[in-house]
Amino acid sequence: ERGDVVEIGSHAHRVTAVGDISGDNFRNLGHVTFKMNGLKEVELPGDVSLEQGSLLVPEVGGTIRIRRSEVAS
């Protein structure tokens, strides 16, 4: 949901928009597309837009975590 936080290693990125099929893709395919574009509306239905910035390459064996915001907007 918009306002949730994606943690990639020690870096946290706030979700700005979620595509209609991104949750289904993640559950059924184990696939998610994160875009660091800060958009309030996704470009494609499988996208998850995060705050504008640079996405770092995760370390091998690192952790990617999605956590609910206390106050999702």
**Multimeric status of the protein:** single chain
Q: Number of DSSP helices?
A: 1
Counted up, domains total 1
Lateral arrangement of strands in the main beta sheet: 3-4-2-1-5
Taken as a percent bin, the fraction of beta residues is: 25-35%
Computed CA radius of gyration, to the nearest angstrom: 12 Å
Tell me the series of helices and strands, N- to C-terminal.
Answer: EEHEEE
Distance between the termini: 8 Å
Structural class: mainly beta
Provide a descriptive summary of the structure in words:
- With 73 residues, the chain is mainly beta.
- It has one domain.
- The protein is built from one helix and five strands; from the N terminus they run ββαβββ.
- Strands 3-4-2-1-5 form a five-stranded mixed sheet, with no helix packed on it.
- A hairpin with a 2-residue loop joins strand 1 and strand 2.
- The longest helix is centred in the middle third of the chain and has 8 residues.
- The protein is globular, with a radius of gyration of 12 Å.
Write the layout of secondary structure elements.
Blueprint: E1 5-8, E2 11-18, H1 22-29, E3 33-35, E4 47-50, E5 64-67
Features:
globular, 5-stranded mixed sheet, mainly beta, 32% strand, 73 residues
In short:
The chain is mostly beta strands and 73 residues long. The protein is 11% helix and 32% strand.
